[in-house]
Specification:
Largest sheet: 7 strands, mixed
Oligomer: single chain
Helix content: 40-55%
Distance between the termini: 140 Å
Shape: elongated
Order of helices and strands: HHHHEHEHEEEHEHHEH
Structural class: alpha/beta
Number of helices: 10
Radius of gyration: 38 Å
Length: 330
């Protein structure tokens, strides 16, 4: 065992009872790195420099963007007040606000020409919002997009009458809505699908109102045209989604799987899909079937979609028209 000589022992402290030395405490040196950051951790320096690098921004450039935003906001507000004064028929206020609007518009144009940084940043934000909106609409394009379905008394009567047999619909794009239009359409559908004359049909006509509206309720109205043809009319933002929602609603209320008949849409398939994507109409038959497939995975309970095409030179309607013209000529 190691023993220390009295010379190596520390001198006794007279202020401490027993003569033992006090333990010395080490003072922590102030270190700014250990201080808690106010407002949370700071972002990395690379991230803080990313935005200024993209827009080549400094204090002056950010000031120009801020001035552009403020001027655009004030100009929009002044134009809105001018329109409101005109509608209220306040001639004095209308002239005053119109002069102010012109001044702010001129100032905005001059600022944009001299310092276009704000327009660049705004264009980037607008492009991003537009791209995200288009992707969202594309991902949800094949949803039902109908919150509720309401049938009036005449439409309910049509559905109850067909439920005792087979429910057969014909998708028709309303044109002149005369007697010849419906007669030719029925003859085409019967010829394309080899259906007997005893089978009766109900026409479905959808009028596109506002393609930008994504979801809405559906109101179905029934009417009898030319004392013979039963028609269900609807208004919606998209034709295929509306037809699919109505077919599923009729199946759920009657317990009968309905059938719907289409004619193939003429034209380029990609162009027709763009028409559906942007305006809610176009390639109706395949999109309706795709919406039904996504909404009802069971094929036995899925409404039936039938499509056909009759060449223009051999269409029954055209043949009847030519025969009528020959009879008249004779």
């Amino acid at each position: 065992m190691l023993q220390l000589s009295p010379d190596h022992l520390p001198a006794p402290d007279p202020l401490v009872p027993g003569g033992h030395p006090r333990p010395r405490r080490r003072r922590a040196r102030p270190d700014h790195r250990r201080r808690p950051l106010v407002g949370g951790p700071r972002r990395p320096a690379a991230r803080r420099r990313r935005l200024p690098w993209i827009f080549d921004a400094d204090v002056d450039a950010q000031g120009g963007a801020y001035a552009t935003g403020v001027l655009v906001l004030i100009s929009s507000a002044s134009i809105a007040v001018t329109i409101a004064a005109r509608k209220a028929r306040q001639r004095g206020w209308f002239i005053a606000f119109a002069v102010i609007s012109v001044v702010f518009l001129c100032t905005t144009v001059v600022n944009v020409v001299e310092r276009p940084d704000g327009v660049k940043i705004g264009a980037c934000f607008m492009a991003g919002i537009t791209l995200i909106s288009l992707l969202s609409r594309l991902l949800r394009a094949f949803e039902l997009r109908v919150t509720s379905v309401t049938l009036d008394d005449m439409a309910e009567r049509f559905v109850r009458d067909m439920a005792s047999r087979k429910i057969r619909f014909i998708a028709n794009e309303p044109d002149s809505r005369d007697k010849a239009e419906y007669r030719k359409k029925i003859e085409q559908i019967r010829a394309d699908n080899d259906l007997p004359e005893q089978e009766d049909f109900v026409f479905l006509e959808v009028t596109v109102t506002d393609p930008s509206e994504f979801e809405a309720g559906l109101t179905v109205q029934g009417e009898v045209l030319h004392n013979r043809y039963r028609v269900l009319t609807l208004e919606s933002s998209s034709v295929p989604n509306t037809l699919a929602a109505l077919l599923l609603h009729i199946r759920d209320t009657t317990g009968v799987v309905p059938h719907i008949y289409f004619l193939w849409t003429e034209g380029n398939p990609f162009a027709n899909f763009l028409r559906f994507f942007l305006f809610g109409q176009g390639e109706v038959a395949p999109v309706t079937r795709e919406v039904l497939r996504g909404a009802e995975p069971d094929r036995a309970r899925r409404p039936r979609v039938h499509t056909g095409y009759w060449p223009p030179a051999l269409r029954i309607g055209s043949a009847l028209d030519r025969a009528t013209q020959v009879d008249r000529a004779a």
